[in-house]
Amino acid sequence: MKARLHLIRIEFDYIRKMAGIFFLQNAHTLHPSPSNPDSLIDAIDNWHADLANLAGNDSGGVFKPLSDWPEMRPFNGRPYANVALAGDAYQQQWRGTCLNWDIAAIRNGILAKPREMKVAEVDSVPGIDAPAWDAVPEAVLKERGGMPFANAKTILKVLRDKDALYVQSAPPSVQTGVDSTNHQPAALHDDQR
């Protein structure tokens, strides 16, 4: 009975710690600050360290049999990569989640690097096909160093005039930036800022 409870505890801790990671990620998403990601990064590291320990520090292999129940392996003997959610299986998109962030790059300061976007000025409201958009450089939203913070990479183009900011936004496969209600680029006016 103790061996069975040991196995259940391992799998319960796996789910409990994963839920904690997503809780911390939501907290960071809602209130981003330089100190928020520290607990999230530590939780991700600890979750992966627990899995590595169960696998005998062999991230390419399978989990070790339990010492008190040698016939049984944690997670029903599934490969390490499946349990660590390192890939994208059918209807599952785990690779793009915080579970697979490059923690070493984050600890080395990739998120601390400043980001800025230069915004060109126009004299009048640019239409969706205005030549002014052709000269605007593309910027990527929610991605730093190849690490997405959203499931879809989003490309932005931004222009401004004295009253508004005009934004074209689309995933890489759709570069229209059309507002479906009035077929114009979205604009933020002074009363909306």
Set down the secondary structure blueprint.
Elements (H helix, E strand, L loop, with lengths): L1 H29 L5 H19 L25 H4 L19 H5 L12 E2 L17 E3 L1 E2 L2 E2 L5 E7 L3 E7 L15 E4 L4
Parallel strand pairs: 1-5
Antiparallel strand pairs: 2-5, 3-4, 5-6, 6-7
Q: Keywords, please?
A:
193 residues; alpha+beta; 2 domains; two-stranded antiparallel sheet; 30% helix; elongated; disordered C terminus
How would you portray this structure in words?
There is one protein chain. With 193 residues, this protein is α+β, with helices and mostly antiparallel strands. It folds into two domains: 2-107; 120-192, no CATH class. 30% of the residues lie in helices and 14% in strands. It has four helices and seven strands. The strands form two sheets. Strands 1, 2, 5, 6 and 7 form a five-stranded mixed sheet that branches. Strands 3-4 form a two-stranded antiparallel ribbon. The longest helix is centred in the N-terminal third of the chain and has 29 residues, at 2-30. The N and C termini lie far apart (62 Å).
User: How does the major sheet shape up?
Assistant: 5 strands, mixed
Beta-strand fraction estimate: 5-15%
Q: List the helices and strands in order.
A: HHHHEEEEEEE
Task: Give Rg in angstroms.
Answer: 23 Å
* Poorly predicted runs: 174-193
Helix amount: 25-40%
Structural class: alpha+beta
**Which word captures the global form?**
elongated
Helical region count? 4
